[in-house]
């Protein structure tokens, strides 16, 4: 089952999995549900066991955990968080000469100076997907999801769910107010996005913290519309729920990618950290990632081996619509987004 376990439910602090055979020489700090052997099968084949995993459910909470002294060897933040790890002097560059498949990663994942500069490569992108409008196809007519402004419609008051996540909630707000690039937001754009979120808040039944929570809300009929990731769609479809995923609304949808950073002064084996990355970028991992999470692999050569119909079924085919790329943005602006969202959720 595809799920990211909520921090509020069971992961208020990261905890290592109680695995019977976990490699103590490599601690991987990762999203819950990514502790899958099929994603790192080459590592298991070489070392005879999985790495030790510590799990989290939210990028900001994960950063605070590490900044407060938690020790791991590698972690799996999404791209907009990398600057925070760098600014806090928590990570060091990867030696990509030891990661052959890095050459197959497209330039679109490498072009930011936050990821790669004259000091080296700080970030290895591994997976990407979309954030878009999910809806119950049996109760919501297609014309209602032609625009994300449906989240403001009184018709659906108390029947929508939005992500309890700074980056995803602001991608929606900005798209809804005509912004498709958040890297240089003006004050006017920020205030317009915040005002839109305050309107949407009036219709929200619940802010979901993980896809399994959202799936339950939609399965019971409490929620008819949501803004969510591909893995929530994959989960609901596996359970036979009639869910659509509108990535081509009038305003568009968002796309995000995540990857791994290499911690300074890590407690484990540097060699095994490279074995882990090489296992993740192996072609076999792409098929597993698609099947288990509904995500695309950053390795274009690996993705080229997957049938086009499988990619289309997973809602990963290219879209003919505006896309807001959740790329790194100004750290101070992101902190403002986080603070403003907390105010909005509290009714202010």
UniProtKB/TrEMBL annotation:
One of its GO terms (biological process) is polyamine transport. Gene3D superfamilies: Periplasmic binding protein-like II (3.40.190.10). Keywords: Periplasm, Signal, Transport. Pfam families: SBP_bac_8. InterPro entries: SBP, Sperm_putr-bd. Its main location: periplasm. It is found in: Periplasm. The keyword Aminoacyl-tRNA synthetase does not apply. Residues 1-21 form the signal peptide. GO terms for cellular component: periplasmic space. GO terms for molecular function: polyamine binding. PANTHER family: SPERMIDINE/PUTRESCINE-BINDING PERIPLASMIC PROTEIN (PTHR30222), SPERMIDINE_PUTRESCINE-BINDING PERIPLASMIC PROTEIN (PTHR30222:SF17). This is Spermidine/putrescine-binding protein.
């Amino acid at each position: 089952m595809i799920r990211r376990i909520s921090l509020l439910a069971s992961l208020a602090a990261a905890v290592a999995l109680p695995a019977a055979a976990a490699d103590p020489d490599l601690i991987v700090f990762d999203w819950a549900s990514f502790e899958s052997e099929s994603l790192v099968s080459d590592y298991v084949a070489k070392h005879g066991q999985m790495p030790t995993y510590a799990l989290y459910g939210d990028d900001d909470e994960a950063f605070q955990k590490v900044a407060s002294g938690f020790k791991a060897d590698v972690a799996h933040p999404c791209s907009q968080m990398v600057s925070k790890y760098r600014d806090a002097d928590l990570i060091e560059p990867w030696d990509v000469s030891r990661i052959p498949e890095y050459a197959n990663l497209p330039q679109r994942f490498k072009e930011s100076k936050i990821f790669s500069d004259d000091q080296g490569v700080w970030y290895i992108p591994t997976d990407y997907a979309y954030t878009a409008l999910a809806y119950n196809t049996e109760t919501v007519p297609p014309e209602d999801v032609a625009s994300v402004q449906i989240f403001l419609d009184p018709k659906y008051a108390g029947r929508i769910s939005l992500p309890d996540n700074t980056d995803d909630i602001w991608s929606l707000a900005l798209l809804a107010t005509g912004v498709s690039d958040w890297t240089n937001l003006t004050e006017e754009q920020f205030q317009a996005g915040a005002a839109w979120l305050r309107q949407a808040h009036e219709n929200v039944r619940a802010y979901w913290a993980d896809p399994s929570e959202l799936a339950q809300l939609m399965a019971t009929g409490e929620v008819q519309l949501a803004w969510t990731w591909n893995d929530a769609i994959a989960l609901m479809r596996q359970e036979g729920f009639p869910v659509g995923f509108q990535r081509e609304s009038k305003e568009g949808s968002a796309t995000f990618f995540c990857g791994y950073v290499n911690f300074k002064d890590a407690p484990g084996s540097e060699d095994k950290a490279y074995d882990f990355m090489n296992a993740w970028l192996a072609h076999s991992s792409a098929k597993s990632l698609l099947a288990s999470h509904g995500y695309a692999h950053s390795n274009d050569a690996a993705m080229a081996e997957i049938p086009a119909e499988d990619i289309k079924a997973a809602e990963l085919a290219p879209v003919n619509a505006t896309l807001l790329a959740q790329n790194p943005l100004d750290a101070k602006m992101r902190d403002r987004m986080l603070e403003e969202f907390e105010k909005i959720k509290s009714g202010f």
